[in-house]
Amino acid sequence: MIAARPGPVHTRAAEAPRSRLPTILWAATAVFIVYGTTIPFNFVPDRATALAHWMRVTWNPLVSPDTGSRVSIPDFVSNILLFTPFGCFGVWALVRRRSPVARALVLTVLSVALSASVETLQLFTMDRTTSVADVFANGLGGLAGAMAGVLFGTTAEGFISAAAAAGLTDAAAFYPLMIATLIVCAGALEPFDATLDVGSVFSKVKSVLHDPLQMGPLTDEGLSFLQHLLFTGALVVWLKEIRVRQAAKIAALVGVIASVALEGSQFFIGARMPGLWDAGVGAAGALAGVAAGAAFPKVRRPFFWCAGVFALTAIGVAMQQLSPFVVTPIERPFQWIPFLNYYTFTTSETVSHSAELLLSYFPLGMAVALAVRARGLRLAAVVLAALVIAVPVEYGQEFIGGRYPDITDIALSVAGAWFGLWTATEGWRQFRAQLSLISPR
Prior knowledge:
With 441 residues, the protein is an all-alpha fold. It has 15 helices and no strands.
């Protein structure tokens, strides 16, 4: 048991260090919304076309102009999800002196304004339909994202304060452990389409009882193995730093339980199917992480650890992006226009695939950033490492059935690695600065 340090813990959001990342992500989200909702850019500067589209507009926010009946629930939810990041990043980017309620209201108004602007642009396109229902759903998405951002920020500050009061943050490995925990949870719960539909859950339970293994074509097993490995590896190092006895055994037990629990949580994720095979892969990764964490004090060569993460990332990404490994005689052309191939998918599928790639390359960015000491070379090294994996894999999709090579996937891969770089450098500095405000020494 770790005793809490005496004395009150004080923190004020207004004193927290500022970062430009939320503003960058907020702006990037706005650009993506405009880009994604006007692609493939079939604009027609014709007033007659715009007027014809305008006459089809239905002012009831729950009625679709395409069918004249109630809006499709999946489409409505997709439009909410599209603006959720805009609200979330925006609430972090706004000046913190504003109250949470004021920030949420401002983001809702801005979401409606952005959505209305995009819908107006769609009046001048050939294949887009202007919809009040979309504006309504987008406004709800901005509000939901803002509320989620406020809730997450408050919860994170409270968690860090409590951890600092208990002395848990004294160990240097606390931050990597925290990040590894978020990554392994996100990897298991992605694409985050939680459902409480009894029929869906019951159907999954029946399927698992019929076939507990649920082993299908290899997809994300390699990346799941890596994520669980990093989690228990960081856990072992942290437990040793806070002088917990039998750290390896405790980490192994926690890692195995976590892999089973996270797999079980997929009963409530619409697009995921739990099974003993995936739970076993996670448990194997957790046990491998225990060995890696135990060896960390003996092998303090950053390049060695970086090479291991690089190799596992390459294997995991190849398994994920080249599945189902069916070679087709028809070579597919490489798509150079960003997100054009995504145009045929729903927003939820696009978000899911994007999150998948970002999570895949995130550990690689962290590993390279920690291995390369020269600050000026870190970005180049991270981008190069991501490209060395992403480019061959993406071009390999030209010959795989059901896969389409796309510049978008390469860009998302680099973005995921860059975010890992930021987390390992500037993000870590921000965390330490936050700790110094919470509990100054």
